[in-house]
Write a structure and sequence with these properties.
Distance between the termini: 213 Å
Helix content: over 70%
Largest sheet: none
Shape: elongated
Number of strands: 0
Length: 786
């Protein structure tokens, strides 16, 4: 047996040169060698490529090995891409080989890895995201399990729309598979997970992911994560921790974020934790870095100033500084404080200043908004502010006199012209006709508010433009009213009245306002006494429908104005009883109306004149005595009512004077009211009270002529009290005052403003006083008769 075995071995050794390997054996060997090289820690990629390429070149002879060779070539290209400074070409090359391997058919053992590798290069080359995701899902590589989930997470984000949930799930699957020593990959995965959660606004989950990143994992990723962590704290309104995180980022020699941007964010956190001075300091520091952070910090600083009422006005120059280089929306570029946010800040600021009647600031911000936003948006707000500002100035001027009134009226006209011009510009031809018509209507209204002839003609031109558009619709009634208003302000009274009458139709929304304006126009016409009474009657008839309670629901402003106007109409007619009824009702229903003080005075006057009428009856010798007695009692009652109205009004006006809130018109009203109060006391026979009040009134005299009247009334009180010495003293005071007054002091507007009247009065009082003294002298006692 031993010899047989030895012989066999010898035969094999002798025959060996004649058993040569076939070419197919060599191809398989080269593929095995290439695969072995690729599995080494430091593979010779050129040798592996050469071996695989040699096999591929024999593909026509050995087609069964084309798939495997192509797969190995793809693996070589993929590994070469890892060290290439520009890997795109190698990724494309790998994709080519992998797709060739797929088409030719790779070995069964390589198919799952091939699918994964093809998915990987499809993702890296950004060629076909949907196909890449499909291959990555189906493929696998046990040696790259963590990488596969990372690629899936990235690929989910490239879908249209991005599948953020899928990316989050993939990242969560990746993290447990990351090797223990691969801290950088772990940090990157948690960082990606945080970003993904933030994209879904899941701030708490993002924060938890960021808190998993540690310094030993990767200093670079850790530093970057502190920025995201700070923003998470901000989003959760945990500004104290956000401040700590930003301060940590700020201490880095080479921070991962621009220093100006860090100051911008840190300032916000300081502000939100009540550290306003520190916020201002870092925002000011951000100015030194320039660029977006400097501008964004100014905008944040303006926000802080707006939130502090004492500093609110400072926000305007801050915003002007922030936007000084912006002339149109395209000029604004700031990723830290986006355009929409800046527009909202300006719009909100405009509204805040508008609500506090700071029209100058509101106007400046509206102009900034016009530059920063679409022209229409800014112009619309600017027009609203200019109109509102104009109305305030106009109303203020009505309470003033002299230069102050003239100045405010001029400023009001400027604002109305600005509002009118902006409104006319808003009526662009490309807009729908209905919108054009609305802007033209606003322009007409503002031109009318200007009041001068040229602007009123501009208003009429705006109305005509609306009519040419043929889209007035429900606006027709208002346009008719505006036309009537224009005629009235041009002084074309008859045309205005005719136009107002055209507005008095049931479907015209301006019919009640037209009635009010028409009545005001009629009342102010200068006519004969007979015509005046006739016109006042017609005015009352015109205004009567406005007193219907239903009008209050439709137009409460006009209803309120009409209630007072009817009382004033009746007063102008000297219909004291009806005037009293209407004025009392208006004051009771609308106690905060701007006419209430004047109307309270007129109500007191109504009672006074009713008392005067009763006084005539009481002194009419043709009436029976009991009728005269009744009239006397009614007189006393009306005087008490007049005083009861006037005294509280006097107190309210004095309070306004003490608070320095009194207008010139109210100062005149205080004088008239005070006179009425003291006169009521006098005619009620309360001479001592009247004398006391006249002495107080004497100190209020604004004109020397008024003092003459008060002195004459003091003389009357003393005369009624039979105090002849005081009568003589007041007569002396009046003569001395008369001597000191030049003729220009008497305007002859009434008897008591006429020098001759007072000279004659003074001549008469000496005789009156002498007779009065003689009438009350006791008889002379001559002693007893003999």
């Amino acid at each position: 047996m031993f010899l047989l075995g030895a012989a066999a071995l010898l035969a094999v050794w002798i025959g060996r040169p004649y058993w040569r390997p076939t070419n197919a054996d060599r191809v398989k060997h080269e593929l095995q060698e290439a695969r072995g090289i690729l599995n080494r820690p430091s593979p010779d990629l050129n040798r592996a490529f050469e071996l695989s390429q040699r096999v591929l070149e024999q593909g026509s002879v050995y087609p069964q090995y084309v798939g495997e060779a192509s797969y190995l070539l793809g693996c070589v290209s993929l590994k070469q891409a890892e060290d290439a400074p520009e890997p795109d070409a190698k990724w494309q090359e790998a994709r080519h080989y992998f797709e060739q391997a797929e088409a030719a058919g790779a070995p069964e053992a390589d198919k799952v890895r091939l699918t994964f590798s093809l998915g990987k290069v499809l993702h890296l080359t950004k060629t076909d995201p949907v196909r890449a995701l499909d291959y990555l899902r189906k493929g696998d590589d046990p040696e790259a399990a963590s990488e596969r989930w990372q690629l899936l997470a990235e690929c989910y984000q490239t879908q249209n729309p991005p599948d953020i949930k899928g990316a989050i799930d993939a990242t969560n699957n990746q993290i447990p598979l990351i090797l223990q020593g691969d801290g950088r990959s772990r940090a990157q995965a948690y960082y990606r997970l945080a970003e993904l959660h933030l994209r879904r606004n899941q701030v708490a989950e993002a924060r938890k992911a960021l808190e998993e990143i540690r310094v030993p994992d990767s200093q670079e990723v850790y530093d970057s994560s502190r920025v995201l962590l700070a923003r998470c704290y901000q989003a959760e309104a945990n500004y104290a921790l956000a401040t700590t995180a930003w301060e940590q980022v700020r201490t880095k020699t080479k921070p991962v974020l621009d220093k100006g941007a860090i100051d911008f964010e840190l300032g916000w956190c300081y502000w939100k934790t009540g550290r306003n001075e520190e916020a201002k300091k870092v925002w000011d520091e951000a100015q030194t870095y320039g660029g977006e952070p400097a501008q964004a910090s100014l905008l944040r600083k303006a926000e802080m100033q707006l939130a502090e009422p004492p500093n609110r006005a400072r926000a305007v120059p801050t915003l002007e500084d922030a936007l000084k280089s912006v002339q149109k929306p395209a000029d604004y570029r700031n990723s830290l404080y986006p355009l929409a946010q800046a527009q909202q800040l300006l719009e909100r600021s405009c509204q805040e200043f508008k609500s506090t009647a700071d029209w100058a600031s509101a106007g400046k911000l509206a102009e900034l908004l016009t530059r920063l936003s679409s022209a229409n948006k800014g112009k619309e707000l600017a027009a609203e502010i200019a109109q509102a500002w104009g109305l305030v100035l106009q109303k203020k001027a009505a309470t003033e006199s002299g230069q102050a009134a003239a100045h405010d009226n001029e400023e009001a006209v400027k604002q109305f012209q600005c509002a009118a011009t902006l409104s006319a510009e808003m009526a662009a031809p490309e807009l729908p006709k209905e919108i054009q018509a609305e802007w033209l209507r606003r322009a007409a209204n503002n031109y009318l508010n200007c009041g001068d002839k040229l602007n009123i003609q501009n208003a009429i031109a705006m109305i005509e433009r609306v009519e040419k558009l043929g889209s007035a619709g429900t606006m027709e009634g208002e346009l008719a009213y505006l036309r009537a208003l224009a005629f009235a302000r041009l002084g074309e009274t008859e045309k205005a009245l005719e136009a107002y009458r055209g507005c008095l139709t049931p479907n015209n929304p301006k019919q009640y306002r037209a009635r009010c304006d028409m009545v005001n126009l009629v009342v102010n016409l200068s006519t004969s006494p007979e015509d005046k009474i006739k016109r006042l009657d017609q005015a009352a008839e015109t205004l009567a429908p406005n007193l219907d309670p239903a009008v209050h629901d439709q137009d409460p402003v006009v209803a309120e104005e009409s209630a007072y106007l009817m009382g004033h109409l009746m007063y102008a007619k000297h219909d004291w009883s009806r005037a009293e009824a209407y004025l009392a009702a208006a004051i009771r229903q609308y106690p905060k109306n701007e006419e209430v003080l004047n109307s309270r005075y007129l109500l007191s006057q109504c009672y006074y004149w009713l008392a005067t009428l009763e006084s005539r009856k009481a002194n009419d010798p043709n009436l029976p005595e009991d009728e005269r007695d009744k009239a006397q009692r009614r007189r006393q009652d009306f005087l008490d009512k007049s005083r009861a109205q006037a005294e509280p009004l006097q107190e309210d006006l004095i309070k306004l004077e003490q608070e320095q809130k009194m207008t010139e018109a109210e100062r005149s009203l205080l004088w008239l009211t005070s006179c009425r109060v003291v006169e009521c006391y006098y005619f009620l026979g309360k001479y001592e009270d009247a004398a006391r009040l006249y002495n107080l009134l004497r100190m209020r005299c604004a004109k020397p002529v008024d003092e003459l009247k008060v002195l004459s009334q003091l003389w009357q009180c003393s005369f009624s009290l039979k105090d002849w010495e005081k009568c003589a003293s007041y007569t002396t005071d009046m003569r001395n005052l008369m001597k000191s007054l030049p003729n220009e002091a008497f305007d002859n507007a009434s008897n008591d403003h006429n020098r001759a009247f007072w000279e004659n009065w003074l001549k008469s009082v000496d005789d009156i006083l002498a007779k009065a003294r003689a009438a009350v002298q006791p008889p002379v006692v001559t002693g007893p008769k003999g």
